[in-house]
Amino acid sequence: MRKRLECVGLIGSALLLALTCGADARAAAPNYRARLPQDEVIYFLLPDRFENGDPSNDRGGLTGDRLRTGFDPTSKAFYNGGDIKGLMSRLSYIQDLGATAVWVAPIFKNKAVQGPPGHESAGYHGYWITDFTQVDPHFGTNADFKALVDAVHARGMKFYMDIVVNHTADVIQLAECKVQEDCPYRSVADYPYQRRGGIEGKPINPGFTGERDGSAANFAKLTDPNYAYTVVVPPAERDIKRPAWLNNPIYYHNRGNSTFQGESSTLGDFSSLDDVFTENPRVVRGMIDIYCGWITGYGVDGFRIDTAQHVNPEFWQQFVPAMLSCARRKGIPNFHIFGEVATGEMDPAHTAVNTRLDKLPSVLDFSFTRAVVDVVSGIAGTDELAKLFRADPLYEGGAEAALRLPTFLGNHDAGRFPMLVKHFHPGISDFELLQRDMLGHAMLLTLRGVPTIYSGDEQGFVGRGGDQDSRQDMFPSKVASYNEEKLLGRGATTAQSNFDPQHPLYREISKLAHIRTTHRALTRGLQLIRYAQGKPGLFAVSRFEPGTGREMLLLFNSSTAPIKQNVRVETRSVHFDALSGNCPLNALAPGSVAVELPPLGYAVCNAR
User: CATH assignment of 37-169+282-520?
Assistant: First the structure.
């Protein structure tokens, strides 16, 4: 009955997504590719930690112990067993949550294990790529991946790939460093491309200046990769990378580990991973060929670009137009590209510059995360959010472009949202933490941007930190440190399967996601700050339906006390329907409503 009512509510909407309406309704839905990036609700997952549909591929076709196969379901640092078939079996779960797009961590073939003795870990996360043309055997086959993308499309959903350009797996070794992870960065000033050693005083690479001359003729002069360090490739790995041109060390920077400052940010190795020489036109052409192939061969709808800020802007200025052109030829008019420009600060300028200089169409909104964590935790006033949104014109395309920024509360690197909130409230009760978690999700799903939900958040996963500590299994886990944690909402643990559609967070996210995708004010509408203050309390925002100007009033209380406050609205917004929470049903006077919210409460109010 619930599904039937939801279908009736969707009929006539320009954004008929048929999220829970069954096969017939899905078949009747408008072309999902006509949706704009801001129309989506994204669900992000790591295949290895989501669902195990085929135990026969747990070891990726390899034999031996975990240091050979990468598989150890008892360790958070190794493959746990999730795969593509497992993901396919849970698509209904994802769609019923309200997601309209699935973003999956890299599925490319990875180096199974790397790291110094005693500190090894596996490439379960997908970011240590050796073969950019094949699916990692731990996850399945290329045919499995094609079936997955087709199954997602059959539901009227979109599929986003997580891609890497900045680096490959750690294959190249630098002879002067006994421990590659401790190999210091050597600058261009200290080790110019043309002046390390040489025969009879002649430079190794005559004529190559190291300046921004991106011509093939200039790069043809760079023939020796030993300008900063002596490059060594282990014999067993000399032909491990695909396409084959990636095996040539000349296509890497080979300068040691990045300090993530100055020139090393784009020229240094990311924690010893081989940093690709993306200035080289051969590399540009090669990466365009690789990723255009995934668009044309599989019909994916978008790319999330890992470590985007660590690649030179000139690369993106060529790569992005090529990808958009490739997508259009495939019949994908609204291909969504967003880069990872990580920052732990509330600093929109840091992320916006990559849309201005690099010409990335969009970036993950790390500043949104920082602002929401601080406001919902109560360590900042609600004016922190007002400051965030006031900076939207910094992005290329202004406030309209800010609508396309994927927003999120926590992730697989920095940690999950309730863990970040708990950091500021060590003694917080589970009940209050759940309330703050729901408040954060209400902001995520109604404020500007493209809401991105990290798998497990809807089941009350908390975690103890970032990286491996925030990558819990959704299927029954054997990792002791994961299973020691009690999940929010129903007292479960990760020792059991966690795909419960009755979980209070799942139900609340589902409700808010359906409100969002059936109201254009919340997908394409610009927003206006109505009320903010320098302490915890009320944050009020109006968003407006394009074309009609119909007002949606969003209300949030970040304090632990009830609030009463008059809030300005449009004079024609006289009556309101409560879509969620406690809304003022009628205007107090033309242009003013009396707002009342409970502690940590929120409301979504639609003007008639």
Answer: 3.20.20.80
3-class state of residue 403 by DSSP: coil
Q: How many CA atoms does the CB half-sphere of 561 hold within 13 Å?
A: 6
Measured CA to CA, the distance from residue 315 to residue 553 in angstroms comes to 42
Q: What is the DSSP letter of 115?
A: S
- Identify which of 518, 513, 498 has the alpha carbon closest to the alpha carbon of residue 45: 498
For the four alpha carbons of 424, 427, 431 and 432, in that order, the dihedral sign comes to: negative
Backbone angles phi, psi at 353, to 5 degrees: -60, -30
Q: Residue type for 63, please?
A: T
For residue 275, indicate whether it is catalytic: no
Question: Per residue in 515-571, pLDDT tens?
Answer: 999 999 999 999 999 999 999 999 999 999 999 999 999 999 999 999 999 999 999
Q: Identify the active-site residue in 340, 365, 384, 437.
A: 340
The burial class, CB within 10 Å (0-12 / 13-18 / 19+), for 106 is buried
Task: Find all residues with CB under 8 Å of 461, minimum gap 6, and list them.
Answer: 416, 470, 472, 487, 488, 494, 498
Please identify, in words, the CATH class of the domain defined by 526-607: mainly beta
And the tokens for 178? 């006994």
Q: Shortest CA distance to 555 belongs to which of 507, 594, 508, 509?
A: 594
Task: Verify whether residue 39 is a known catalytic residue.
Answer: no
Single-letter code of the amino acid located at 24 = D
Domain segments of the chain as ranges: 1-30, 37-169+282-520, 526-607
The one catalytic residue among 269, 274, 275, 306:
306
Q: How far apart are CA 563 and CA 538, in angstroms?
A: 7
Q: Distance between CA atoms of 206 and 195, rounded to whole angstroms?
A: 9
CA angle, 256 then 246 then 287, to 5°: 100
Record the pTM.
Answer: 0.94
Tokens of 445: 């799903």
d(CA 141, CA 379): 47
- What does the pLDDT read at residue 220? 87
The predicted-structure confidence for 276-317, as pLDDT tens digits, reads as follows: 999 999 999 999 999 999 999 999 999 999 999 999 999 999
